[in-house]
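User: I'm curious what two different proteins look like when written out as structure tokens. Can you demonstrate?

Assistant: Sure. I'll show them one after the other, since each token string lines up with its own sequence. Here's the first protein:
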Amino acid sequence: MWATAVGVARVRAVETERENALFRDPLAQAFATAGGLGPSSSSSPPLPDDEAARRRRLGVAFSIVIRTKFLDDLLKQASASGVRQVVLLGAGMDSRAFRMDWPEGTRLFEVDTAAPLDFKASVLRQERSVARCERITVAVDLRDDWPGALAAAGHDPAVPTVWIAEGLLIYLPEDAVELLLARIGAQSAAGSRMGLTLGSRGVIERFGADAVPGSAASMWVSEMPDDPVGWLAGHGWEADSHTLRERAAAYGRPISTPPQREERPGGLISAVRRSCAH
């Protein structure tokens, strides 16, 4: 699945080269190149001939750009509110430890399996990259006891944490999503924050039907609940849900096509932990 993370890096590399880029990710191209996706200066990977498939691919790339900016902003707000622990779940090729400005004392934990973390480490060595905060990698499968591994790596559940699960939950079956949220909640002091991306309703129907076996879309299994805010309230989080369309417009990248149907709650989630009731 971490080949998907390299594909995401490729999208971020293309965005980084835009004049009006919503973020700059100087490491993205190095990850993409090392993963076998050539230079982004050749514009972008050849698009499929099929118009519908082409539109879908462009749509996925667009959503990656918007969600990256959304979560960058959420992390800046969490830092400004005094949160100094960051946990990236399924970190993939995330380079926020290297490309964002972090307040002194910030500790950032990257949780993922050993294979992507090892691949990433080799690229970081080659690029001589230096993190801008204390960066701690935690090699563990999210199906295993990752809270134990995180605690062993120095995470302190008694102080607030900002949790990021970007492009992750769509790959997990519903029971695994529930378990993940329960575990996050158990490690979250009051004042903790969380940023999630959820698969919007109908996305599997639209993308999964003719997805190439082994492609990212072929592994999507879970969509967001009809009421994500209520769902997260049940897990002890006060959440806001944002649509891609709304955030894209706010970032100066409005979506030109009219909404397909009445826009449902969006899959970009920001949440705050108000109390420690587990």
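Here's a second, unrelated protein for contrast:
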Amino acid sequence: MILSTILLALAGLAPADTVRPKRLALLPVPLVYYTPETRLAYGVAATATVHFRRDDGFAAARPSQFTLALAYTQNRQLLLYVPFQVFYDHNRYYAYGEAGYYRYNYYFYGVGQRKVPRELFGVNFPRVRVNAFRRVGAGVGAGKLYAGLRYQYEDYRVSSVEANGLLASGNVPGGLGSRLTGGGLGLFYDSRDNVFFPTTGVVADLSAFIRNRAAVGAGAAGATTRFDRYVADVSGYRALGAHAVLAANAYGSFILGTAPFNALSLLGGSRRLRGYYEGRYRDQNVALAQAELRFDLYKRLGAVIFGGVGTLGDAQALLRLGQPKGAYGAGLRFTANRRDHLNVRLDYGLGRQSGGFYLTVGEAF
């Protein structure tokens, strides 16, 4: 999950613009956010924005951020998680990821072209994701290209399913639980002028997870499956004058082998095709293109309009281009941290016979 939205007392506590930023800015506050998957969520969080001593005097040093959050939702979900993003030694090293524990309820709508009436299921799972990179290369793009390693672990313990549903039948890989471990390689290219609100540049995140291992079945004591996943997530930004930015994003996720249903490629959620429930569409392969026009309204207040289209595929048809899923919407932005231009966002997205509000921190892409 992306950083949770901080609402209460945020404007008064946000750091003002300074000539020399503080090395550590700590912001402990209540938190509130809203997504269709959680409904209203509330709890406490502490976010630390860090500028390391080693980067003193380096004007282009990017801020690092750590968050510790505990939240409970209207859907009786419990979340304890620590997302992080670290830039170190003149941006030579870059790491990001998350460690957390989640007690969640989700809706399941089927896999691929096999649609079912939505089924409610419960799950408890710890999850760890770590991505560690080092800057590489010389010449064109020097200082902007990173290469490194990725690791993920998730023990997906399904605690309840609907009687006589598709998950209860045992015919969906991982429908009764799974334990996933895997690692891989990654490339990361970043020429953005700002991490949280870019106005120019490109960011590309490429992944190859090789031979992921998933033990599937109740208590993850069943058969073991293996699969590869290849992911590309590319965004570009262009300023349209002094008060508007056009942002575009292309995303693809492709799986070879048999992955548990919770590890399949997804459409929907707060980042990819807003307007659809996260996991409303899931299959082996996904491709998505979306764009967003961001513009200033008044002082810290801004607005956006957005739209996107995605499609899914499987082993038989790489992508079913004749069955696109589209969504569009609009939203408001409030700049909570002026120094780093970190925004609170409120979006409303509309899909086909679907819609929802999203209240979070940070842009969708």
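A detail about the second structure: The helical segments are 10-13.
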